[in-house]
Design brief:
23% strand, Rossmann fold, Hypothetical Protein Tm841, Chain: A,domain 3, alpha/beta, 295 residues, 2 domains, 11 helices, six-stranded mixed β-sheet
Length: 295
């Protein structure tokens, strides 16, 4: 096995156990809930159900990215051991954390001139970002070297699709992503916007669909449209959800029926504090490998 480090940030929304099993070190984002600061440690400090309950009760949330110093402290021990690093970040379209990671890498190269430090902007988020890192871990474990893995990551990151919908627009309204008027009407009429992530790593509303069942069917249709080999897709599929497991399970069951060649069952993960602070409860997101994401 190649002795280099493949790492990512906690906003990749898998689980501590999953990352430990895959040998992927994780650096934590931060969030504030009700005036108290926490690490986004994948639900250890504040479990997802508690996060969303407290948000619904009116406690305000704020998020903050990993600082340059924190990245230096995270990368430093690996470099001291003589190991190279390829670190994958949350989309630069959503946060400036990739710039902090690059500054930290630049600073550390002066101290460790013989070491390689690659920083890759995933242009992804939540468990789609996690799926991308997971696919890189597969290649690492198959013996791919760090230079080749870096090249592969840059060429293939836009082949990971992110499609999601929300059944509750409350926090999209609070965050300014949906106007108060449109959001209020949408909630009353049961409008569930279908969004995806574009080639710049930005969240883009694509369709307005009335009803949870219809938007669930539509998101599965989008997977059939964009996944490698359509319904013969044989890769992995991850789903993340914010306190709406039954909705996610409903979508997962449809996917498993429509895509019989999947690599294992659909994996469902909770949306973590960094992403969940902006979506609130009621969001279901589907992630898979497919054609090239565009505008």
């Amino acid at each position: 096995m190649n002795d280099y480090v493949l790492s990512c940030c906690s906003s990749s929304d898998l689980s501590k156990e999953y990352f430990a099993k895959r040998n992927i070190p994780v650096v934590y984002f931060h969030f504030e809930l009700g005036g108290t600061q926490y690490l986004d440690d994948m639900g250890e400090s504040v479990p997802p159900k508690e996060l969303f309950r407290r948000m619904l009760e009116g406690e305000e949330t704020k998020t903050s990215q990993v600082s340059v110093v924190e990245y230096e402290e995270f990368f430093g021990p690996f470099l001291k051991e003589g190991r190279d690093i390829i670190h994958i970040t949350l989309s630069g379209g959503l946060t400036g954390t990739v710039n902090s990671a690059r500054l930290a890498a630049e600073n550390l190269r002066e101290e460790y001139p013989d070491r390689k430090i690659y920083i890759v902007d995933s242009l992804g988020a939540s468990s789609g970002y996690g799926l991308f890192v997971d696919s890189l871990a597969d290649l690492r474990d198959q013996g791919m070297g760090i230079d080749e893995l870096h090249e592969y990551a840059e060429k293939n990151k836009l082949h990971v699709h992110h499609w999601f919908f929300s059944t509750d627009l409350t926090f999209y309204i609070r965050g300014g992503r949906v106007s108060k008027t449109a959001g209020t009407i949408g909630n009353v009429l049961g409008i569930c916007p279908l969004l995806n992530m574009d080639s710049d790593g930005l969240l883009i509303p694509r369709e307005k669909i009335r009803g949870k069942k219809k938007v669930s069917q539509r998101i599965v249709a989008k997977m059939a449209e964009h996944a490698y080999n359509g319904t013969y897709y044989s890769g992995k599929c991850f789903i993340s959800q914010s306190d709406c497991y039954e909705d996610a399970r409903f979508v997962a069951d449809m996917i498993e029926e429509k895509f019989p060649n999947l690599d294992g069952k659909v994996r469902i993960f909770p949306i973590g504090a960094t992403i969940g602070s902006h979506t609130g409860p009621g969001t279901v997101a589907v992630f898979f490998h497919g054609d090239l994401r565009t505008k």
